[in-house]
Amino acid sequence: MPHTALIRSHRKPRRNASQTIAMRAGVAGGVIGTLAVAGASAYSANAAEPVTQTLELPTLTADVAAQIAQSADATQQAAANYQLQAERDAAATKAAKQAKSDLADAKKAEAKKKAEQDARRAAAERASRTAERTVLAATASTGSSTSSSTATGSAAAVIAFVKAQIGKSYVLGASGPSAYDCSGLVQAAFKQIGVSLPRVSQSQSTAGTQVSLSNLQPGDILYWGSAGSAYHVAVYVGGGMFVGAQNPSTGIVERPLSYDPPTGAVRVL
Q1: Where are the beta strands (DSSP E) in 171-257?
Q2: Residues 120 and 227 in one domain
Q3: DSSP state of 16
Q4: Residue 122 — very low, low, confident or very high, per pLDDT cuts 50/70/90?
Q5: Helices in the chain by DSSP H: which ranges?
Q6: Residue 61: inside a domain, yes or no?
Q7: What is the pLDDT of residues 191-210, one digit of tens each?
Q8: Of 108, 125, 142, at which residue does a domain stop?
């Protein structure tokens, strides 16, 4: 027998795989059991003593407070501006309506004033024409004006010419010799004595010196309408009579001044 046969080996006996697995499982089970007991104890302790948690709200800083105050002021200012603008718009609308009303009233007043002025002017013209008719009728009846028989020189030649045209036709724009209009007859009468006159009535009414209807002389040019804007002309032939191309219905005729009193007269001779 060898000398080492009675001496125990110093090596640990080997465990087989089954033993290792069983040991590990036991250790794990012990750890899990320990954790479970600890958890149960902690739960019991928590259940016995409820935990109170305190939430701390953030504290407003001075900058945030200032921004909030500034935003509130801006909102209030915007509201005030809106109200002010609304008041201004309302005032502008009211002023526009009032201005429109005032303008309408002013136009009515102006129209009324113009109508009154026109009425007074028409009345004055009627009175003036009535007075002229009276003067011309008196002149014709008394024969105080110079008659055509006593006209001499150029005036007599003008009168002779216009009387020679009596009975001819009135044609607008005609200058003779078979037909005339009013200014064409007057121009032709003075042309044959060497006096050049404008062609139209408006210009002929200012071609000479203005004379009063109460101081007419044979050969004067009579006009109807205003000087410079006359619409008809004829030649005064004396004795309260005139010769003119009146209209297409009558042609060239001799008529008393009272038949159609002229507005004025000019003297070119």
Answers
A1: 179-180, 209-211, 221-224, 232-238, 241-247, 251-256
A2: no
A3: P
A4: confident
A5: 17-48, 62-142, 153-164, 182-191, 201-204
A6: no
A7: 999 999 999 999 999 999 99
A8: 142
Distance CA 127, CA 112 (A): 22
CA distance 99 to 93: 10
- As for how many domains the chain has, the answer is 2
Count Cα atoms within 13 angstroms, Cβ side, for 101.
Answer: 6
Q: What per-residue confidence (pLDDT) applies to 135?
A: 54
C-alpha span between 50 and 44 (Å, rounded) = 11
Residues 181 and 115 in one domain: no
End-to-end CA separation in angstroms for the chain: 196
DSSP 89-127: HHHHHHHHHHHHHHHHHHHHHHHHHHHHHHHHHHHHHHH
Which of 12-26, 97-111, 128-142, 176-190 ranks highest by mean pLDDT?
A: 176-190
Domain boundary residue, one of 142, 162, 183: 142
